Amino acid sequence: MQLSGRGVGCVRGGREVFSGLDFDAVAGEAVAVIGRNGSGKTSLLRLIAGLLVPAGGTIALKGGDAEMTLPEQCHYLGHRDALKPALTVAENLSFWADFLGGECSDAAESLAKVGLAHATHLPAGFLSAGQRRRLSLARLLTVRRPVWLLDEPTNALDVAGQDMFGGLMRDHLARGGMIVAATHGPLGLDARELRIGGVA
Ligand SMILES: Nc1ncnc2c1ncn2[C@@H]1O[C@H](COP(=O)(O)OP(=O)(O)OP(=O)(O)O)[C@@H](O)[C@H]1O
């Protein structure tokens, strides 16, 4: 499996953010997208996820599921945790499993892996920032998708949480998945660097 971008351009609000961007990621590989604030890291993840339309170039996944689009084979984990505060932890995960569809792993097992087994019946609105992030990570484990697009994924995680997430990312790569992560700091695993818009 190979994710490739060729000559990708991005325009936001009528202004060019980047152009002519080439990138590749193969199965089992992580790419760390690095660049100064406003250079277009989030925009690149959203282009791959199909949430924005490229101003130029192509983005394609070779060797994936031929019946599915690239966005259907991606998980996009944004800055903000997409959670419904009135629903419990377990209900949020179940919502995402239904919404995303496809093959699902055991939700309780996913919550245990991210350290939220004790909080399954708590409304998500009561969670701390780090706990909300952990719940978002559980979504990646419950619905299996090969391409993880992660926007500063370790934000709000404590040191143990960062170690836990490092392990989850390594497991994902060992299963032939790939990761494209926008980051200002170390990702916690070996990654190919993709610099956009000059040095951070
Ligand atoms: N909806 C929008 N309309 C107009 N311009 C936008 C919009 N969203 C983002 N931009 C602009 O696009 C540029 C790239 O933003 P983006 O969020 O991709 O950068 P980033 O590299 O992820 O930044 P940071 O490191 O601060 O998170 C910025 O100049 C931003 O102001």
TrEMBL record:
User: Does the UniProt entry include the keyword Translocase?
Assistant: yes
What UniProt keywords apply to this chain's record, in alphabetical order? Answer: ATP-binding, Cytochrome c-type biogenesis, Membrane, Nucleotide-binding, Translocase, Transport
SMART domains xref list: AAA (SM00382)
What are the ABC transporter domain coordinates in residue numbering?
3-199
Origin, by domain of life? Answer: Bacteria
Q: Which family does it belong to?
A: Belongs to the ABC transporter superfamily.
Q: What is this protein called?
A: Heme ABC exporter ATP-binding protein CcmA
Gene this chain is encoded by: ccmA
